[in-house]
Write a structure and sequence with these properties.
seven-stranded mixed barrel, two-stranded antiparallel sheet, 7 helices, alpha/beta, KFase/CYL, KFase_sf
Length: 258
Amino acid sequence: MSLLAQLSTAITQGAVEVVDLTAPLSASTPILQLPEPFANTIPFGLEEISRYDERGPRWYWNNIHTGEHTGTHLDVPVHWLSGKDGHDVSEVPLRTLVAPAVVLDASARAAEDPDFLLSVDDIRAWERENGPLPDGGWLLYRTGWDARSHDQEAFLNNDENGPHSPGVSAECARWLAEEAPITGFGVETVGTDAGQALAIEPAFPCHELLLGAGKHGLTQLRNLASLPPTGSLLVVSPLPIVGGSGSPARVYALVERG
């Protein structure tokens, strides 16, 4: 039996589970809100073209209105000034879109402190227990934030000082960009950076440093609690938008069970 036939059989028989990590796209999907004077993306929207009526008697279809960075989405290097000479979303290597993934769980610490920042020491402690980060793979950062994703106010967690959500320190972002063997970093929050990342030096360090190093980001993931710390295969399916800085994506993981 070929390898692909073995995989197909394993999925059919439940030995490999397909875990959906994607937030559904709708008008209520939370979106990033940057402070003035910065411009913001639009919410997701459907514009009906026809629905079994005089505009089209036997078909239903819509135009979609959305930003590239709405809902579960992929960030690519050209999204940021530091990566402006890098590749766009239509040029992402396929080996990045189908790659091994590991999960670092910091949900207990994020529950205590919504501004928690992951450190290099946290990752090294995880590696001592689980082994090295996957070469050419993904580090997925579980914070429990997906439990808030049904509600924009809870998800962004704003107060008079701005949004509060967990992220990584500047030192950690630099280490992930320059030393870690990963191709990308995935999170459950609205963006790969912390809510207070504008005040970090450099501002928005994950965007600045990882995208500047030709790496990638995934945001608004769900169900990371269903994945083991190691051993998952991540599949990311963005739209190949020519010139695009990112794209909403269907993201899922293949996980061995039993």
